[in-house]
Amino acid sequence: MNVLFICSRNQWRSPTAEHVFRRYPGVNARSAGTQRHARKTVSPAILSWADIICVMEEKHKNSILADFSHLVQHKPVYVLDIPDEYHFMDPQLITLLEDIVPERLGLRIPSLTR
């Protein structure tokens, strides 16, 4: 399963999610940002790669739907509702991600976490 995590600048939230979910069996995780100056910006190539897209906020979903609707129209896009108030690998952010994402994606939690 190829899972793409998206936030604004691809600086804290989505790279943390990418890092955390890389350890899940059967998951290939990448991340990108919607802003022009993001570390890695959302592109047609990365959206085509993704089977599932997880965005941190509704505005990220709206952005990719506005710019790339033809690429994501048949893919699930989950809004995680995680505000931009965490730094990279913040323990609270990791806990939020581990509480929300596995259930949304139907993943079993690996024994490495928690």
UniProtKB/TrEMBL annotation:
Q: Which SMART domains match?
A: LMWPc
Q: Which residues form the Phosphotyrosine protein phosphatase I domain?
A: 1-107
State the source organism's domain of life.
Bacteria
Q: Which InterPro entries match?
A: Ptyr_pPase (IPR023485), Ptyr_pPase_sf (IPR036196), UCP029416_PTP (IPR016919)
Q: What is this protein called?
A: Phosphotyrosine protein phosphatase I domain-containing protein
**Source species, please?**
Kosakonia arachidis
